[in-house]
Amino acid sequence: MKNISRIFLSLIFALTLFQANAQQRFPKPEFETGYVQPSPTTPEPRSTALEYTDVLVLLAALSLASWLVIKKRSRRGILWLSIFSLLYFGFYREGCICSVGSLQNITLALFDPVYKVSITVLLFFLLPLVFALFFGRTFCAAACPLGAIQDLIIIKPVSLPVWVRKTLSFIPYVYLGFAILYAATGTDFIICRYDPFVGFFRMDAPYIMIVIGIALLILGLFFARPYCRVFCPYGVLLSWMSKFSKHHMSITPAECISCKLCENSCPFDAIEIPEDEKIRTPKTLRENLKRFSLFALLIPVWVFIGGYAISSSHVLLSRAHPDVYLSELLIAHPEMKNDTKNIDIKAFRESGKTFDQLVENAAVIRTKFRIGGWYLGGFLGLVIGIMVMNQFLFRKKEIYEPHKGDCFSCGRCMSYCPVEKLK
């Protein structure tokens, strides 16, 4: 699998990757059972100085990306910076620590008083959001290795129908909600577990994740940045922050002349096109206002339906937690309590906990899922209501400009503008 990953990446980037053999901190234990020590799936802890170095590199990358996007307006500079971020945060740091995954660490720290996060994890979570608030999604442009590996392989992007894009835009909210729910209950870090590209960065991953990663990269040749646009949960937060950014990337450095040359330049369909004033008839505006008001009144209904649906599924959802799964297994098959071959049961017996404690803890976890399900479902219902409502909200657009929430600040559209060339 490692050879497959290396060959595949070399075809994409034509780069030779050198990795030093990691040294064990302790000698391997010797077993007489033929046990083979597995390779570590996560990078070993770094020293505090090196962790702060990672933060400084991230800060420098975000600052340089913002300068290249807002002031320098250099697509070439953004491209080279994204390659650096891919090599450093991706292959050298092996995708950890990751701003996208840090969302789960922050969530668990908020809900579990025992769990603590370091200042470096907190900074990796906050810095991209702060920069997005002031300069747009410059983190996505050149500092995120997950985005960079997809951005570098775009060949012939196609544009999807508006209704398809709007439907797909709901998926990141679902992913965000479930990632928070599973992290808050201490069940799993699903963003890290199902990261499609970390297998390439570490040259080691389950076979299915390698297949998914390759499939996304192949899809990305034509549907630009599929993970960023359809799945990335951290992108939801970046989009929220970016909508309030004052110094956002613009297509033209001066006044837009509406030449329409940039209309098809964005591979992410993030350019907003001026709307025809003729469609703003009094009758159309009245009808849209009625529909907007109707769907606004239906938002509480969406919230209740979503909350009830997810909360009602709490038993099923909670089975992902190991304690709940094990308790249900032992209740259904009490004869397995003395099974010495089952590694989960063996680990439980060696923990010193009683069966009653296991069942009691499982009940507490189910309660957390039931309560969390109401919040998650209510959140998703609110998102659906707002999305439907926005379909009847008219925004006057007189020039071609990037959508602040959807724009990745890649800078491709700037080179299409004749005003840019004249400057």
What does this entry look like structurally?
The protein is mainly α and 423 residues long. The protein folds into two domains: 2-13 and 50-274 and 404-422, no CATH class; 277-390, no CATH class. 60% of the residues lie in helices and 1% in strands. The protein is built from 21 helices and two strands. The protein has a two-stranded antiparallel sheet with strand order 1-2. α4 (99-111) packs across α9 and α9 packs antiparallel against α20.
Task: Label this structure with key terms.
423 residues, mainly alpha, globular
Element-level helix/strand string: HHHHHHHHHHHHHHEHHHHHHEH
| Count of β-strands | 2
Percentage of residues in DSSP E strands: under 5%
Helix content: 55-70%
Main-sheet strand order equals: 1-2
Q: Tell me the structural class.
A: mainly alpha
How many domains? 2
User: How far do the termini sit from each other?
Assistant: 50 Å
Radius of gyration of CA atoms, rounded to a whole number: 24 Å
